[in-house]
Write a structure and sequence with these properties.
elongated; about 280 residues; lipopolysaccharide transport protein A fold; 7 helices; single chain; alpha+beta; about 55% helix
Length: about 280
């Protein structure tokens, strides 16, 4: 009847040393592959922008944490496969099993290192990678002289399905005054309740409309209820949309890397915008 031996520190050190060596090599090789691919994609654009060499190096250095988050799980898979295959190839696995060492004891160093790498990967992916990639994107745009405001089209339309409101902007600005604003509020049966037209509008904790004209409609939505209301300056706190929500829904410009908390905030706080 076979007996199982206790955990040997020498065995643990041997397997851990082999595993860590191959793991580091895999991570370095994968990082090099990712970096070379990024250089082929972005270097020409940076050179065309006449970016200094140090700024180019800084940009690619800021990209490394996001590459590391992708390299760690792949490296763990490759390293585990290689180390176990190597133990079997040299009959070390058979010798250890014949001497009474269990599979769990043999794989214990691998499990410990994999757990530490999982914690490292989670930390990098949830904290370091989003921050560094956001800075890398901003750094690249600064080198190329790009500004986000130039990406916005003049006229955009926006629908809040849950709020039953339609917005139309002839000249939308996410941070300053928007021109030619029209807001239409609908009832549950789909008929129009009221319509607001304004020469300009700006959001300051609430929507403030310049030269606003409000038309109110009857129950059928096709008959006006009296003359329109005219306001030189009209403030409305019931409109829950803000320029950030409208811009998010229309442009969908999200960072390349998002943390779990940021994804949760988007899904819960901006469900209306995602569903439209």
């Amino acid at each position: 009847m076979g007996t199982k031996r206790r955990l040997s520190l020498t065995l643990v050190r041997y397997i851990a040393r082999e595993f860590i060596t191959i793991l580091m090599l895999c991570i370095v090789v994968l990082l090099a592959f990712f970096l070379v691919a990024a250089i082929f994609d972005d270097l020409e654009d940076l050179l065309d922008a006449h970016a200094p060499a140090l700024d180019i190096v800084r940009y690619f250095a800021l990209c490394l944490p996001s590459y590391l988050a992708d390299a760690i799980p792949v490296s763990l898979l490759l390293t585990t496969t290689f180390v176990l295959a190597r133990l079997c190839r040299h009959n070390e696995m058979a010798a250890l099993r014949a001497s009474g060492v269990s599979i769990l004891t043999i794989s214990l160093p691998i499990w410990i290192i994999a757990g530490l790498c999982a914690c490292l990967q989670f930390t990098v992916a949830e904290w370091l990678a989003p921050i560094s990639l956001h800075r890398a994107t901003a750094h690249k745009e600064a080198l190329q002289g790009k500004h986000s405001d130039t990406d916005w089209p003049a006229t955009i339309a926006y629908r809040n399905r849950h709020g039953r409101r339609d917005w139309l902007f002839e000249d939308f600005s996410p941070s300053a005054k928007s021109r030619g604003v029209c807001v239409s509020q609908y009832r549950e049966d789909g008929t129009i309740d009221w319509e607001l037209r304004a020469a300009a509008a700006v959001y300051r904790d609430a929507w403030i409309f310049d030269d606003a004209v409000i038309h109110r409609f009857g129950d059928t939505g096709d008959i006006l209820l009296g003359p329109p209301e005219r306001h030189e300056l009209y403030r409305n706190q019931t409109l829950l949309e803000n320029p950030e929500h409208i811009g998010f829904s229309f442009h969908l410009q999200l960072p390349d890397e998002l943390t779990t908390l940021e994804i949760r905030e988007i899904l819960h706080g901006r469900g209306d915008q995602l569903s439209t």
